[in-house]
Design a protein that fits this description.
Distance between the termini: 32 Å
Strand order of the largest sheet: 3-2-1-4-5-6-7
CATH class: Alpha Beta
Number of domains: 1
Helix content: 40-55%
CATH superfamily: NAD(P)-binding Rossmann-like Domain
Bound molecules: nicotinamide-adenine-dinucleotide
Number of strands: 7
Shape: globular
Structural class: alpha/beta
Number of helices: 9
Mean pLDDT: 96
Largest sheet: 7 strands, parallel
CATH architecture: 3-Layer(aba) Sandwich
CATH topology: Rossmann fold
Low-confidence stretches: none
Strand content: 15-25%
């Protein structure tokens, strides 16, 4: 059995009111970490923190819009004072899917999606890095998508661009922060069966898509937990700047 040694670590997970973020938060708490459950939707953050508490874990819910620097700064301060430290940052939050052909995409929609998905990732990294540098220990896991590697569905140019940006941001700050013993990696999920995914598809389309996947099934939030915990641990200390695709083999075709 691999001991990930995450007990007592302070973990800040954005978007952890959502299904993937909640699965990760429960996974970290199960390893004994103290979790800041961060989401723009306070009630969703509270629901995840409640689930963790019911399982005997430690979590605090924090309402925060990651696209607002003042809110991110305040949330990191709060997490640091209540949990004692932020050792691990996982940037899961993403704007709702809003689709339009590129020539019709409202300027404010483009800005909104980039602000949450890309700028929010930058803001959270900016806010936690000083304390990670001071301790010479830190793990950051960002969330991109297969849409950031090979393009998103038609009408999702802002989403595809923001998620490609997260990959470039990850590899760049990994170079910058490596000398400070901070690892920065990224996950690019393929199709993961969450509300986001069901909202953007039909059952027939999903059935057809599953048949194109080498593993013949779409993913679940739990399929992401092991890899994120590993990348957040010392067991993956020689891995940085990478984007790991978790997609049932889809991109490898
Ligand atoms: N589900 C998939 O198939 C899939 C595929 C590829 C990538 N991803 C990525 O995985 C991550 C999680 O996806 P999900 O399916 O769980 O999404 P989701 O929409 O269920 O969860 C996203 C969470 O982020 C929160 N959020 C939205 N805007 C925010 C903001 N400004 N500040 C703070 N929180 C905010 C939402 O309230 C929600 O709880 C996202 O980054 C998404 O792009 C998902």
């Amino acid at each position: 059995m691999i001991n990930l040694e995450l007990g007592g670590k302070g973990v800040f997970i954005t978007g952890s009111g959502g299904e993937i973020g909640a699965a990760l938060a429960l996974g970290f708490a199960g390893e004994g970490a103290k979790v800041a459950v961060v989401d723009i939707d306070k009630s969703k953050a509270e629901a995840t923190a409640h689930r963790i508490a019911q399982q005997g874990g430690r979590a605090i819910p924090l309402a925060c819009d990651v696209s607002r620097w003042e809110q991110v700064h305040a949330a990191v301060e709060r997490a640091t004072s209540e949990l004692g430290r932020v050792d691990v940052l996982v940037n899961v939050a993403a704007a709702p899917l809003l689709r339009a052909p590129v020539e019709d995409l409202p300027l404010e929609t483009w800005q909104f999606i980039v602000d949450v998905n890309l700028q929010g990732t930058f803001y959270c990294c900016r806010a936690v890095v000083p304390q990670m540098k001071a301790r010479r220990w830190g793990k950051i896991v960002n969330f991109s998508s297969t849409s950031g590697r090979r393009g998103a569905q038609e009408g999702s140019s802002a989403y595809g661009a923001s998620k490609a940006g997260v990959i470039g941001f990850t590899s760049t700050i990994a170079r910058e922060l490596g000398p400070h013993a901070i690892n920065v990696n990224c996950i690019a999920p393929g199709t993961i069966a969450t509300a986001r995914f069901w909202a953007g598809s039909t059952r027939e389309r999903i059935e057809a898509h599953q048949q194109t996947l080498p593993l013949r099934r779409v993913g679940t939030p739990d399929d992401l937990v092991g890899i994120v915990l590993l990348l957040s641990s010392e067991r993956a200390s020689y891995i940085t700047g990478q984007t790991i695709t978790v997609d049932g083999g889809w991109l490898g075709l």
